[in-house]
């Protein structure tokens, strides 16, 4: 899809049908800023807008792979104050995320869940085709562990955002994005 702004109206529609939903959010950034360049709707603000409109069941929000520069001394404070679980990238380095996803499945329970995957959650060595790359990210194998770890959840929607093929002449980012979307389709309820 486009930039992460697209998740905001999608979650408005999803919440209209299902009420507030849980969220598995893979990203380098929390996307909970209040404003950017004077605007309240921007690819770095969608989840703050979702909190304000009560579109998220905040006790069932997990953000995985978060890292990078910040303007705040505690860049995750807002998220934690809302009840989000923030899993910084350094907690994921050099290990399987299967145990983490077991915890996430318990946290999500059987209530509706949305998956939002920003390609910059992955290290730019694997996915350089994005507008806001951050070093020291997740691997493609860890991305698969996260998505496959969502199997069995009551997934009501998903997206993959921030792929910018013009920034990757190899085409690897687009290939990776397409494969991750395929994996998301495979874990939807009822898919055998």
From TrEMBL:
Transmembrane regions: none
Keywords from the named record: Hydrolase, Metal-binding
SUPFAM superfamilies in the cross-refs: Arginase/deacetylase (SSF52768)
Superkingdom of origin organism: Eukaryota
Keyword check for Cytoplasm: no
Keyword flag Hydrolase: yes
Molecular function GO terms recorded: agmatinase activity; metal ion binding
GO annotation terms (biological process): putrescine biosynthetic process from arginine, via agmatine
Pfam families per UniProt: Arginase
Coiled-coil region list: none
Family from the record: Belongs to the arginase family. Agmatinase subfamily.
Name recorded for this polypeptide: SPEB protein
């Amino acid at each position: 899809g486009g930039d992460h702004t697209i998740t905001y109206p999608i979650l408005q529609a999803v919440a209209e049908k299902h009420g507030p939903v849980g969220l598995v959010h893979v990203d380098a950034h929390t996307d909970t800023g209040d404003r950017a360049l004077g605007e309240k709707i921007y690819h770095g603000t969608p989840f703050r807008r979702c909190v304000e409109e009560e579109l998220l069941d905040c006790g069932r929000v997990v953000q995985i792979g978060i890292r990078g520069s910040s303007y705040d001394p505690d860049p995750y404070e807002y998220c934690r104050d809302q009840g989000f679980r923030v899993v910084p990238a350094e907690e994921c380095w050099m290990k399987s995320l299967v145990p983490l996803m077991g915890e996430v499945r318990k946290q999500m329970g059987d209530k509706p869940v949305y998956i939002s995957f920003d390609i910059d959650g992955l290290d730019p060595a694997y996915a350089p085709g994005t507008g806001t790359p951050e070093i020291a990210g997740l691997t493609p194998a860890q991305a698969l562990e996260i998505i496959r770890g969502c199997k069995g959840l009551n997934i009501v929607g998903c997206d993959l955002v921030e792929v910018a093929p013009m920034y990757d002449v190899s085409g690897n980012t687009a290939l990776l994005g397409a494969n991750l979307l395929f994996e998301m389709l495979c874990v939807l309820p009822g898919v055998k």
